[in-house]
Design brief:
- This protein is 41% helix and 11% strand.
- It is an alpha/beta fold and 246 residues long.
- It has a single domain, classed as Rossmann fold, CATH 3.40.50.
- It is globular.
- The mean pLDDT is 94.
């Protein structure tokens, strides 16, 4: 009898390195990846309009129950690991979370100021809820309370600074073996990418690995409106950052 598949739910906000992380796990021969499976359900219920809105709505189930059932169902291609890339703000308050007890939850975090500086390059308007950090902290607290210990948290900055060090530690925290194929991948689009890839994935489609941060990185400067959002998000980010894998 074959072992039960390992299901990994990686929770991040937008403009993290979430798609690069999906590329990394997708490079493993034992892993199938799914890209933001609650996106259409989120758009349908919230009424928020995103780039390629109609295409997203047509590409996925709009009922969160269908999505959750698929995440716990047979893993496509019979793979041993099912990596699920999730956006925290897609988990609206009315969406059930019982399914999260059946997966290994992990959290990918990024400094709110850096998130906002990147986000506004893709969308003109942004509010605190759009960057998902408050909801991310809420989900983190729920999982930590249930487990009695903090779930795995990894910082985008740490992964970019040393992927060969951080990815083995992340895999260990998730209870899977590290695979060196996670460090490099071929460029281009994937069949598993969401239909929204043309609007968001230009950089990752050119990538072949995790880009190193600039050695002369400057502090992110934001206009007052965005700075206020970053300041509101920061305490939630810091709660998770304190327990991040180093």
């Amino acid at each position: 009898m074959s072992a039960a598949p390992i299901r990994i739910a990686m929770w991040s906000g937008p403009r993290n390195i979430s798609t690069a992380m999906m590329r990394s796990f997708g490079a493993r021969l034992d892993t199938f990846v799914v890209d933001e499976p609650f996106y259409a359900a989120y758009l349908s219920v919230s009424g928020v309009v995103h780039p390629m809105n109609a295409e997203v709505l047509a590409s996925q189930p709009q009922d969160w129950r269908q999505v959750a059932a698929a995440l716990l169902g047979p893993v496509p291609e019979g793979k041993a690991v099912f990596y699920q890339k999730h956006m925290t703000h897609h988990m609206l308050p009315g969406f059930g979370r019982a399914w999260m007890r059946e997966v290994r939850n992990a959290f990918l975090i990024r400094d709110p100021a850096a998130v906002l500086a990147s986000y506004v390059l893709k969308r003109d308007e942004v509010c605190l809820a759009d960057i998902g950090i408050v909801r991310q902290r809420e989900l983190f607290d729920e999982v930590a309370d249930r487990l009695g210990v903090a779930p795995p948290v990894v910082s985008c900055a740490d992964v970019l600074a040393s992927p060969s060090s951080m990815l083995p530690k992340l895999c260990s925290a998730l209870g899977i073996e590290f695979d060196a194929s996670m460090l490099r991948w071929p460029p281009g689009r994937r069949a598993t990418d969401g239909v929204w890839a043309p609007a968001w994935y230009d950089a990752v489609e050119r990538s072949t690995g995790f880009d190193s941060p600039s050695p002369a990185k400057k502090a992110v400067e934001l206009p007052d409106q965005l700075r206020r959002i970053a300041d509101e998000a920061m305490p939630h980010y810091e709660v998770m950052a304190r327990v991040a894998i180093r």
